[in-house]
Write a structure and sequence with these properties.
single chain; alpha+beta; 3 helices; 15% helix
Amino acid sequence: MAMRRCVPALAIRIQGSFLPYYRRIQEAAKKKRYRQLPFLETNKELSFRPPIPDPRDKSRLIKVDLAREMNIKVGDRVQVLFGSEKGRQGVISRIFHDKNQVIVSGINLKRSFWHPEPGPGKPSIVSMECPIHITNVVLLDPVTKQATRVKRRYTMTGECVRISKVSGSAMPAPVPVGPSEREELWAKHESQ
């Protein structure tokens, strides 16, 4: 009969009580890497995705002043791009910034009202210029007389200058526009 050798029972290992050296180094490095920095505070609340914006929500929509974006001013020479007046040129006499519309002198005339002071040599019905959307007109290059877009640049003195993208020349200052005869007649018509 063979004698059995008694092997002392090895101590029962409890999970996590003993870690090899390399694992302890890894754990220490991980703790150091992901430690809570003193100047960063973590939020314990659950994170939720922001709701998808509702396109019907009118309070979020922002009006854009296209006259400012397109560098168009009162007194600029423009050409009509679309409509029955396509290709005709005129000078901007008024800009409606809230509606993004312009009135071009001599363009888009509609018969509007009876002349307030009829007489010989005066038309019985007066035509008025109707507004055109600002995207339907385009500035004209002062050199080539072609349609152009405009960019803003600043001179050494700090003055803002509009520059044509077609020829690269500076746009001339807008022509001063006074009250038109049609507007004066309309004011008389309204007062009656």
